UniProtKB/TrEMBL annotation:
GO terms for molecular function: L-aspartate:2-oxoglutarate aminotransferase activity. The keyword Transferase applies. Coiled coil: none annotated. The keyword Transferase applies. This is Aminotransferase class I/II-fold pyridoxal phosphate-dependent enzyme. Keywords: Aminotransferase, Transferase.
């Protein structure tokens, strides 16, 4: 079919009445579908269920470094867990501290520490009149929520195929000492699925911010979440690049096993330079006498090493891949060539990012809801929930079944078509 913009008003009106009929038919079915949640399906959770059996009352609950995991202590985490999370973070064991069950919690905590105590002897951000943070967009709504919660001004930076627009990042940080950091999801980013190029990573390592306490918040949430075994993306490791160019303290890396083992019951870690880790420990020792070492032990006994983790991730991919492909198949069949939307075809991660015609995203999400399909709120992928072009919609294919996704995608494309025609007619 020709692009909608080339069709006469008459043709568009006819098309619209056809599509409205189809939409009403679907509405009558009273469906309840959800493509808003980036969480693993039950089938994915079932793959790791054996983890519940690796520790029993009969188990030896002493870690290989001699720690009785039932007791208090060991602030950094047991050595075996540190080794595993260090491998996952692609850094040496000495560069890692294990935290609790969520990396988002560690990010919040790190931001909170910067506000109240400052990084490595710098003025706490909370004592400054104004603090700003760079936010590559579209991005992860919870990053933006943390930043907003602390009253930090967010500045949009376009996220390109290669990562954030580095010309803009370099220029902004060099001239404005109030810019204290940037959020990054370097691999299979949420929501566009892009991964940073080597050049982007190297430019981050060489960044020369006016603020000496500037930090790159490097959230590696999807570091091993490949959809295709033969198309795995490799991103240059940033901490090592920073060390090589004499800029070791600029990055703080975050990771967790949330979408590896169980979300909410995984283990999280922070990886950084010695100075940053000492800083984190000085704060953490007031917060806790140690995190959940039994869960650390459970993870280590279950996965053993990175080979165990990779094998497990292949099982996740086998469940996720057909879901991503189903959504792409319906979108391609129904929207291909119409010029009313573009979308990403990620090689990993949890999301597909859809861009509608300008000014249509909110209306599309509302339209889909009429037929019983819940999508992530339009605007959620931008700071303050404000997408300046009102065009980005995050699609999360992980939770529904393939059959549900087929119907959900059809509702979605119908909504896109109807809203786009409305826009073209007005
Ligand atoms: N970071 C990103 C980019 C995410 O997409 C998510 C979850 O969707 C998280 C962090 C949450 O991580 P955790 O479960 O470790 O708190």
């Amino acid at each position: 079919m020709a692009p909608y913009s080339k069709l006469s008003k008459e043709k568009l009106k006819n098309l619209k009445s056809d599509l409205e009929k189809q939409f009403e038919e679907i509405k009558k079915k009273g469906l309840h579908l959800d493509m808003s949640r980036g969480k693993p399906s039950k089938a994915q959770l079932d793959i790791g269920i054996g983890m519940m059996d690796v520790l029993t009352s009969e188990s030896d609950l002493v870690s290989s470094d001699g720690v009785d995991c039932r007791n208090y202590g060991v602030l950094d985490g047991i050595s075996d867990a540190r080794k595993l999370l260090a491998d996952l973070s692609e850094v040496p064991e000495r560069s890692v501290i294990i935290y609790g069950n969520s990396s988002l919690n560690v990010m919040f905590d790190t931001m909170s520490r910067a506000m109240t105590h400052g990084f490595m002897g710098s003025t706490p951000w909370g004592r400054l009149d104004h603090v700003k943070f760079l936010c590559p967009v579209p991005g992860y709504d919870r990053h933006f929520a943390i930043t907003e919660f602390f009253g930090i001004e967010m500045i949009n930076v376009p996220l390109l195929e290669t990562g954030p627009d580095m010309d803009m990042v370099e220029e902004l940080v060099a001239k404005d000492p109030l810019i204290k950091g940037i959020w990054c999801v370097p691999k299979y980013s949420n929501p566009t699925g892009i991964s940073y190029s080597d050049e982007t990573v190297r430019r981050f390592a060489r960044l020369k911010p006016a603020a000496k306490d500037f930090r790159i918040f490097w959230d590696n949430a999807y570091s091993i979440h490949h959809l295709y075994d033969d198309k795995r993306v490799v991103v240059l490791e940033l901490l090592n690049e920073c060390i090589k160019v004499g800029n070791p303290d600029i990055v703080i890396k975050f990771i967790s096993t949330s979408k590896v083992s169980f979300p909410g019951s995984g283990i999280a870690a922070l990886a950084a330079s010695r100075g940053n880790l000492e800083d984190a420990r000085r704060y953490m020792k007031y917060q806790t006498i140690g995190h959940d070492k039994l869960n650390q032990l459970r993870h280590v006994r279950y996965f053993k090493d990175m080979l165990g983790v990779y094998e497990h991730m292949r099982k996740h991919a086998a469940i996720l891949r057909p879901k991503f492909e189903k959504v792409d198949e319906v979108l391609t069949k129904e929207l291909g060539g119409l010029g009313i939307g573009t979308w990403t075809k990620p090689l990993g991660g949890y999301f597909i990012s859809f861009d509608s015609m300008e000014g249509c995203a909110k209306a599309i999400v509302a339209k889909a809801k009429e037929a019983g399909l819940v999508m992530t709120d339009a605007g959620a992928t931008y700071p303050y929930g404000k997408d300046p072009k009102d065009c980005n919609i995050r699609i999360a294919p992980s939770f529904p079944t393939v059959e549900e996704l087929e119907i959900a995608s059809k509702i979605f494309v119908l909504s896109v078509k109807l809203v786009s025609i409305e826009k073209l007619l007005n």
